[in-house]
Design goal:
CATH topology: TIM Barrel
Number of strands: 10
Number of helices: 13
CATH class: Alpha Beta
Strand order of the largest sheet: 3-4-5-6-7-8-9-10
Distance between the termini: 56 Å
Order of helices and strands: HEEEHHEHEHEHEHEHEHHEHHH
Helix content: 25-40%
Length: 373
């Protein structure tokens, strides 16, 4: 171990001691299920780094991954999220090595399928053929005989919804999956799926893994009201908008060259982030960070945690110090006044039909963010 690594490890150790002193992990029910999950969960897309896109996220290998998992478990974070297509399966492999030998029933493992994996005409989608193949591969790579949460990574518009949901119900009945969830669905995708599950008495999606951050709040327009109405919990990915809200992106300064955005690894396209609104939001984040004695990243994460439907937020970490900083987002809350300031500065005009519906919020009430109803 070189001198820089020793120094970083010492810094991380001191931060971890402080973290344990001030933090108690909060657990919430995952949607309309009896499963409690930690409000913070570790995303492992940074594990592996098998291609240029995922190398920009990170290339964490087994030894460091084990250390990150141990830090999470010490802090009460026992939900670990991955996907079959992250680094072509390498993320699952590395996570599998990191959890090897740990008490399995103390862990909550989430993985995903649907997107392209491997070759051939059936290498993507949510068909019975593809899902049956992918679940076996994920279980083998993770070194486990079941997944706690299995997400459809995206909606498959070619496969009948009935085929997908019957397959998922069979996986639950077989014991290979405990809960099913969706990711990146439109409102009608989710509502049709829930209706089909109800019609046939099959297991339903209890959670929706979604992108939601102060940089992009479209989740509030339809998917959040749907989640409230149907009791579908949100597991939020990229709550820092691919690192944009991590504190290094400031007005008038160059984009960090070592960040995912500059390296082409951002899952959030640059075109969807409105630059003027974004930097105004960062300015307010910096003000509130100074008021609270927290970092910009911690304030941004805490804001997400106070929103309706949110069961857990997923964060990634390239190193221990970054991980421990993110863990410091809990154990305290922004004031209602601070939340309103962030809401106001980050608001953008909605698209149709939402701007039309919101002209009469008596008929179409938006989510209650401040306990006013």
């Amino acid at each position: 171990m070189n001198f820089v690594m020793i120094i970083n490890r010492c810094i991380s150790a001191s931060l971890l001691i402080e973290l344990k002193t001030h933090q108690n992990m909060e657990y919430r029910f995952l949607g309309n299920s009896g499963l409690k999950v930690p409000v913070l969960s570790l995303g492992t897309a940074t594990f592996g780094g098998s291609n240029d896109f995922f190398k920009a996220w990170g290339s964490t290998q087994a030894d460091e991954a084990t250390r990150l998992v141990d830090i999470c478990l010490d802090a009460g974070v026992n939900l670990f999220d991955t996907a079959d297509m992250y680094s072509d399966g390498l993320s699952e492999q590395v996570l599998g090595k990191a959890i090897a030998g740990k008490q399995r029933d103390k862990l909550i493992i989430s993985s995903k399928a649907t997107f392209t994996f491997g070759d051939g005409p059936n290498n993507q989608g949510s068909s019975r053929y593809h899902l049956t193949k992918q679940i076996e591969g994920s279980l083998k790579r993770l070194g486990t005989d079941y997944l706690d949460i299995y997400h459809m990574h995206g909606f498959d518009g070619n496969t009948p919804v009935e085929e997908t949901l019957r397959t998922l119900d069979d996986l639950v009945q077989s014991g290979k999956v405990r809960y099913i969830a969706a990711s990146n669905f439109s409102g009608w995708h989710m509502m049709k799926s829930l209706a089909v599950s109800e019609k046939y008495g099959w297991n339903r999606y209890v959670a929706h893994q979604v992108y939601y951050s102060l940089a992009n709040r479209e989740y509030e327009w339809e998917l959040m009201p749907l989640g409230i109405d149907q009791k579908v919990g949100a597991i939020v990915w990229s709550p820092l908008s691919a690192g944009r809200l991590g504190g290094k992106y400031r007005r008038g300064q160059p984009i960090p060259e070592n960040g995912r955005v500059a390296q082409g690894g951002s899952p959030v396209p640059e075109m969807v982030v409105k630059e003027d609104v974004f930097y105004n939001t960062v300015d307010v984040l910096a003000e509130i960070a100074e008021e609270t004695g927290k970092t910009i990243a911690q304030v941004a994460l805490n804001w997400v945690l106070q929103r309706p439907t949110v069961s857990s937020i997923i964060f990634g970490a390239r190193n221990e110090a970054q991980l421990i900083e993110n863990l410091g987002a809990i154990g305290w809350n922004l004031s209602a006044e601070q939340v309103k300031r962030l809401d106001e500065v980050s608001t953008v005009p909605p698209i149709y039909p939402y701007w039309h519906q919101w002209q009469n919020k008596g008929l179409n009430p938006t989510p209650d963010f401040y306990g006013e109803r």
